[in-house]
Amino acid sequence: MPTPATTPEYLKLSVSERIQLVEDIWDSMAAEESNPHELSQTQMDELHRRVAAHRADPSTAVSWEQVRSKLFLSKP
């Protein structure tokens, strides 16, 4: 934790003011992106390949619960 002499100005704000600051920063970043969710052709091709593979054999899918449990078990 920063010392009082080096406390960043944003820590002096209330929680609601900091939340508003984060929202404002987020909105400003989103406004700078022309289309932040646009995928490249390579990404689209891979997405289509994976969907086709899943449709061909849905039994290979892993549930979110399985993925999540493996992720949390591997943490120390």
Low-confidence stretches: none
Relative strand content: under 5%
Proportion of helical residues: 55-70%
Helix/strand order: HHH
State the assembly state of the protein chains.
single chain
Mean pLDDT: 86
Shape summary: elongated
Number of helical stretches of at least 4 residues: 3
End-to-end Cα distance: 24 Å
Instruction: Please identify the structural class as seen in this structure.
Output: mainly alpha
**Based on DSSP secondary structure assignment, what is the total number of beta strands?**
0
Largest sheet, in brief, is: none
The radius of gyration computed from the alpha-carbon positions, rounded to a whole number of angstroms, is: 21 Å
Task: Supply the key terms.
3 helices; single chain; 58% helix; mainly alpha; 76 residues
What would a concise description of this structure say?
This protein has helices at 15-32, 41-56, 64-73. The relative contact order is 0.05. The protein is mainly α.
